[in-house]
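Exercise 7. Given the encoded structure of a 114-residue chain, write a plausible sequence.
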């Protein structure tokens, strides 16, 4: 799997509204937000889909989740609640093949999703 738009964001080749960064994770606002808060958490080391993740990626996946939870807590919407989503491949609705978590918050989110 080749490079994606998220690789360009990591390398600062295209702009993004970056809200969090550490040595392994980058987070930025989604270009097409589906909620008042819609932030994408991505690993700097690209994995195409969740289905491609391997046992050696377990710590990285945990860091992504904790980065999202920490951001929600710091921004003050953890208590009200939020949703973290991964879309995997076609039927999951994945469009960018660089694994990412969507953090959605700021409104009541329906279930089941569309
Ligand atoms: P997926 O559909 O793969 O789960 O999510 C990809 C997300 O990336 C979509 O919500 C889409 O709006 C967002 N996206 C696509 N291209 C860009 C971009 O260039 N910049 C930003 N910030 N978000 C993007």
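Solution.
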């Amino acid at each position: 799997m080749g490079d994606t738009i998220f690789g360009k964001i990591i390398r600062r080749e295209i702009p993004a509204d970056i809200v969090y960064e550490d040595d392994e994770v980058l987070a930025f606002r989604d270009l097409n937000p589906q909620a008042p808060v819609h932030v994408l958490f991505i690993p700097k080391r690209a994995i195409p889909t969740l289905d491609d993740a391997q046992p050696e990626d377990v710590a990285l996946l945990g860091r992504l989740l904790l980065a999202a939870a920490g951001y929600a807590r710091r921004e003050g919407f953890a208590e009200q609640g939020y949703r973290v989503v991964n879309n995997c491949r076609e039927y999951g609705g994945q469009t960018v093949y660089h694994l990412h978590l969507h953090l959605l918050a700021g409104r009541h989110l329906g279930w089941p999703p569309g």
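Remark. The pocket of guanosine-5'-monophosphate is lined by residues 5, 16, 28-32, 40, 87, 93-96 (CB under 6 Å). Students should compare their own answers with the one above.
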